[in-house]
Design brief:
Elements (H helix, E strand, L loop, with lengths): L1 E5 L1 E4 L2 E5 L8 E8 L5 E3 L4 E6 L2 E4 L15 E3 L3 E8 L1 H4 L5 E11 L5 E10 L1
Antiparallel strand pairs: 1-11, 2-3, 3-4, 4-9, 5-8, 5-10, 6-7, 6-10, 10-11
Length: about 120
Amino acid sequence: YYFMAEISRTVEDVSMEIKTDTLAKDGLTIVMKNDSDSEYTYGPDFYVEKFLNDKWEEIPTLTGDPLTWNAISFTLKEHESAEVNIDFKSSYGELSKGKYRVYKNFNKKTDSNPLNLFVEFMIK
């Protein structure tokens, strides 16, 4: 039913991929890995984009309003990994056929520039 086009992107020894057999029209589980010697922080936020007209476009939420998130920060320690369940259904409904990506922001504790990682997938 579902096919992952590109499962991960790695930047500075930090990567994000879809956990095997978790991709569905209504959500997925992401595995975040930190193979660096630095701590990173991340929040509960995620964003979903669809590849339309040769570019990535943020898909509208069910309400038409932007998503809002609590200002919570989690730590991804050096050489550790963590899993996050992402529920599309409550914010976007079930995803239709197409090419998508989910992205999350990470911050290195010693750097103020955010690191944006994404995973791409196909819903067939």
